[in-house]
Write a structure and sequence with these properties.
Layout lengths: L7 H9 L14 H14 L26 H11 L2 H13 L5 H4 L1 H4 L6 H10 L5 H30 L2 E8 L9 H8 L3 E2 L4 E2 L6 E5 L6 E8 L5 H14 L5 E8 L3 E3 L7 H7 L8 H10 L7 E6 L10 H11 L3 E8 L9 H9 L3 E5 L1 H14 L4
Helix pairs in contact: 2-3, 7-8, 8-10, 8-11, 8-15, 12-13, 13-14
C-alpha cells in the first residue's frame, strides 16, 4: 500500500468530521482524503454522542447519516486507505463498540480482515451465528491470532525458564542478553587506539548459562469462562499450550461456570480448545477449585492459578476454606483477576481480600509476567 502523507489541515479535517468543513476553509480535500473521511464517517457516524470514536483522537463529530456502503466494501476501502495500525483500530472499534458482527460472519469480509485479538474475541462470541463455510474461515483467523500470541509468549517463556548467567565462564555463542561488557572491556584494552581515542573490540565475551534442574511440578490453570473473562480465557489457552511444552512441568487446564470442564487433553491444540469454549452462565468457583485440589499429586510441588473476577455464585464461605486447605498442605495458590495484555481487572475486591487472608497471592498479570512468576517459584522451590 502506498503511504499517504496528510497535511495538518487534512488531519484535523479527518479528526473533526464534516462539521469542521466550513471552519477549516471549505472542501479542498483530495479525492483520497475524501474517501478516508467517508470510511471514518461510515463507522463513527453511528455514534451521535462523540464518545469513543475516531482513530487518532476522540473528537470526530458525526453529522452525516451512515452511507450505503456494505461491510465488505468498507473493509476493502479501509485496507486500501489506512496503515496497518489504523486498520486494526477501526476493525476493533467496529466489533467491540459498534457490534458490527458481519465483520466476522461474512465470508467476503473474513478474506480481508487483519487478524487481531479483538476479532478473535468476536469470533468466539458470534460463532453460533456462522454457517459451516464461515466457521471454517473463522477458524483460520483464530489460528492466525493464536499463532501470533504463542510466538510472542514462547520468547518470554524461554527467557524466564532459561538458566542463570554464569559470570565465571564464557561461551563462543553470541547472545545480547549474555553480553559481558566488563570482561569484554578488560580483554580488549590492549587494542585501544590512543591517536583516534577509540577502543577496537576484537573479541566480545558472552557469559555461559547454567541450566538448573527442575523437579517435576504440577501447574493447574483454573479459568472462569464467564463472558467478561474472555480475554483471560484466550491467554489461558495460549499459556497452557506453551507451558505444556516445557520439561518437568505437568500442565492442567480447567474451565468452569457452574460446571467444570477438564480441557487438559486438549491443551496442545488451543485453536480447537477456543472454538469449543462455552462463554457465559453462572459461576461456581469453589467447585472448580475443589476439582483442581483432587488432581494434585504432590501438594508441595503444585501451583494452582485461579483466573477469575472472584464473583462467587456459590456460598462465599466455601472458596476461602478450599484455598486455606490448599495453602496449608504446601500448595501455592495464585489468583489472577486478569490474564491478558492489559492486566487491568474488574473484580470482587472483598472476596480477593478474603482469599489473601486464606493464603493466596492475588494480582493481575500479562502472560509474560505469569511466566516469570512461575519460573521464580519453580526455580526457587518453596523459598519466599
Amino acid at each position: 500500500m502506498t503511504t499517504i502523507t496528510l497535511t495538518p489541515l487534512e488531519r484535523w479535517r479527518l479528526l473533526l468530521g464534516e462539521s469542521a468543513e466550513r471552519t477549516l476553509g471549505g472542501s479542498g480535500l483530495s479525492v483520497t482524503v475524501q474517501s478516508m473521511d467517508r470510511a471514518l464517517e461510515w463507522l463513527y457516524g453511528r455514534d451521535t454522542q462523540g464518545d469513543d470514536r475516531d482513530v487518532m483522537s476522540r473528537e470526530r463529530s458525526a453529522d452525516l447519516g451512515a452511507s450505503a456502503l456494505a461491510v465488505p466494501e468498507w473493509i476493502n476501502q479501509v485496507h486500501s486507505l489506512f496503515p496497518r495500525e489504523t486498520i486494526e483500530r477501526l476493525e476493533r472499534d467496529a466489533v467491540e463498540h459498534y457490534k458490527i458482527n458481519e465483520l466476522v460472519t461474512s465470508p467476503e469480509v473474513l478474506k480481508r480482515v487483519q487478524p487481531s485479538q479483538a476479532l478473535l474475541e468476536a469470533v468466539m462470541r458470534t460463532r453460533h451465528l456462522m454457517n459451516p463455510q464461515v466457521l471454517a474461515m473463522a477458524r483460520d483467523l483464530v489460528a492466525a491470532v493464536v499463532r501470533q500470541l504463542i510466538e510472542a509468549l514462547a520468547v518470554e517463556l524461554q527467557q524466564a525458564f532459561s538458566g542463570v548467567r554464569n559470570r565465571r565462564q564464557h561461551t563462543r555463542f553470541a547472545n545480547a542478553r549474555n553480553f559481558d561488557a566488563a570482561a569484554t572491556l578488560r580483554a580488549n584494552l590492549k587494542h585501544y587506539d590512543i591517536r583516534q581515542r577509540r577502543l577496537v573490540i576484537e573479541r566480545a565475551l558472552f557469559n555461559r548459562r547454567s541450566t538448573r534442574h527442575l523437579e517435576r511440578w504440577q501447574i493447574i490453570l483454573v479459568v472462569d469462562q464467564s463472558g467478561s473473562m474472555l480475554p483471560s480465557v484466550i491467554h489461558s489457552a495460549v499459556t497452557a499450550a506453551c507451558l505444556s511444552g516445557l520439561p518437568g512441568i505437568d500442565t492442567h487446564l480447567l474451565a468452569f461456570d457452574t460446571e467444570v470442564v477438564d480441557l487438559t487433553d486438549e491443551r496442545n491444540d488451543p485453536v480447537e480448545l477456543l472454538m469449543k469454549v462455552q462463554l457465559g452462565g453462572g459461576t461456581d468457583i469453589q467447585k472448580a477449585m475443589r476439582y483442581a485440589a483432587e488432581r494434585i499429586d504432590a501438594p508441595r510441588r503444585a501451583i494452582v492459578v485461579l483466573i477469575s473476577d472472584f464473583y462467587e455464585g456459590a456460598s462465599p464461605h466455601l472458596l476461602p476454606r478450599i484455598v486455606r486447605e490448599l495453602c496449608a498442605q504446601g500448595t501455592r495458590v495464585l489468583g489472577l483477576a486478569a490474564l491478558d495484555q492489559e492486566a487491568v481487572p474488574a473484580y470482587d475486591r472483598e472476596m480477593a481480600a478474603t482469599l489473601v487472608a486464606a493464603g493466596a497471592e492475588i494480582g493481575a498479570m500479562t502472560p509474560g509476567q505469569l511466566a516469570r512468576w512461575l519460573a521464580e517459584k519453580l526455580k526457587g522451590g518453596r523459598a519466599g
